[in-house]
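Predict structure. Chain length: 302.
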Amino acid sequence: MDSLPLDALVIGEALVDIVNRADASSVHAGGSPANVALGLARLGMNVALLTDLGRDENGMLVKSHLETSGVTVLKSSFSDRATSRAVATIAADGSASYDFDVRWSPALDDVPRGATVTHTGSIAVFLAPGGERVRRHLAVSTSREITVDPNIRPALLGSVAESRDIFEETVALATAVKLSDEDARWLYPALSPDEVLVRLRALGPRLAVMTLGRGGSKLLAESASVSIPSPLVNVVDTIGAGDSYMASLISSLVAQPAGAITQERVTSIGNLAARAAAITVSRAGADLPTSHELAASVRLGV
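Prediction complete.
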């Protein structure tokens, strides 16, 4: 770690994505929390990632990829076990389906304190034995903001009821939660998007957000309810879109003092996050935008 104050601590999986397209295959560093950490670093934040990597070739690939963008991968993230893998198959419309070979058993004994925001999500919340350790850490966290994104992967989870209980236990510890409409349909099949957001807000977070793909996003705070359209872009693939949205949302929360989230502020948060996601889907893989790219998008209105 460098001597700068720690803006963000991200706790969650990092792995290699093997991406299969109709005409080629490639290997990339991935994992939703790792992508969020990378996105935060590219947006100018001082970020540390606590994950679960092997000291193998794949683990070193992930480490190098993250550190190139300024993420500090904590030393306690490494063990002699193999690095996890996800295989993504890209359909003709750019959507991605996944198969996983993953583990999650992080060492949370020596986590740095004092981060303005702690973010977690995806399998880090649900998968044993690490999920329970993460929730215990969140319960005693001193971070001003705690953010959660479930990034549901049904193949890696237990029953819907069990997963929903774990998710809601985690949300109750958070100040902001973001999920996709696909996450919501799996966790709450009988509820509308608006009903899901009301339910999540009632658990305690100041802000609840749902992304709706091409349908934009919805944001709900105590005194604000906003619908944000998605910018019109040519979609290459959707890998990392939700992580880009999450990173921008976190950056916006950290940039302003804690307190009431007004309608104007929610609108600003949602519009900027939508632009971040749009940049990512317009290029291949989880290539999240830098602060300069995001500022240019705002300036040019694209």
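Summary: The longest strand covers residues 15-20.
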